[in-house]
Amino acid sequence: VHQSKLDFFCKLGYGKQDICKVLENLGQEALEDDVLKELIRMGSKPRALENQAQPSQLKLVARGSCGTTPGLKWLGEDESDASSSLRPIVIDGSNVAMSHGNKEVFSCWGIQLAVDWFRERGHTYIKVFVPLWRKEPPRQDSPIADQHILEELEKQSILVYTPSRKVKGKRVVCYDDRYIVKVAYEKDGVIVSNDHYRDLQNENPEWKWFIEQRLLMYSFVSNRFMPPDDPLGRHGPTLSNFLSKKPVLPEKKWQPCPYGKKCTYGNKCKFYHPERLHQAQLSVADELRAKTKIPLALGKEEERCQCSL
């Protein structure tokens, strides 16, 4: 568990020393969201953000030269980074098509809906895996709808057929699930499927962690492809962060303390206190001690003055 979390946050760009400190403080069973919040609280930044924070050194260019201005160069870099910051998408074509066809028909239109959804979000690397025998004419026991979509996606280099052949009249099919998980793991991408791949999880421990953390489930609602807004649960990342290589945390909104001025937690209170903006957040006991020390000190000074007279 420690190594998997260490590898996960190292891929996000955080230093190993900072990650180990946070895991020691919070414990090995801490949620990834809590670890990420603690890293941000400590001031730790991913390497990519640190490089962006460093001011770039502008170079003087002589008049009449053909050198490009830094501003134009940065604009081009930002445009390329927009697509490169999104994770590669690997779609389980059979699972998506059968799900759209209510597990009765291999609906190729469901695959097209899923591909279009990720295209609209800006993903450039999208691969769909389908067994080769799906190119054959449909039969009664395996009906196919909109089969021409597979040909169009193949021409666009999006659809990939997993190999299959016939030996003595029997079809020998390669395990397409292994292709899907292997490519997604190597590309550090996202698997789009409602299958849990339990056999592959038991086969490889690294694949087990990857499938648990990078499996994107979905639903079809009136011919609309809809993945969940919280792919890893209520306390996990949002869908945009799940599909991005550089997750962005929302700004923390301070909730006002329900006790107001009657709060007795002092500096340990995690809520917002507008009356303490320009005051040192001391506990109530420390404030009382400080108030009692002031009149005692004034009384001793008066006694000293009377004795000197």
Question: Topology, please?
Answer:
Blueprint: H1 2-11, H2 16-26, H3 32-41, H4 47-53, H5 70-84, E1 89-92, H6 93-100, E2 106-107, H7 108-121, E3 126-131, E4 144-145, H8 148-155, E5 159-162, E6 164-167, E7 170-173, H9 176-187, E8 190-192, H10 198-203, H11 205-214, E9 215-216, E10 219-220, E11 225-226, H12 239-242, H13 284-308
Domain C3H1-type: 251-276
Pfam families: RNase_Zc3h12a, UBA_6
Protein name: ZC12D ribonuclease
Description:
This is ZC12D ribonuclease. Pfam families: RNase_Zc3h12a, UBA_6. Keywords: Endonuclease, Hydrolase, Magnesium, Metal-binding, Nuclease, Zinc, Zinc-finger. The protein has 309 residues and is an alpha/beta fold. It folds into 3 domains: 42 residues; 162 residues, Rossmann fold (3-Layer(aba) Sandwich), CATH 3.40.50.11980; 31 residues, no CATH class. Helix content is 45%, strand content 11%. It contains 13 helices and 11 strands. The strands form 4 sheets. Strands 5-3-1-8-9 form a 5-stranded parallel sheet, sandwiched between helices. Strand 6 and strand 7 form a beta hairpin. Helix 1 crosses helix 2. The protein is elongated. The N and C termini lie far apart (75 Å). About 7% of the residues have low confidence.
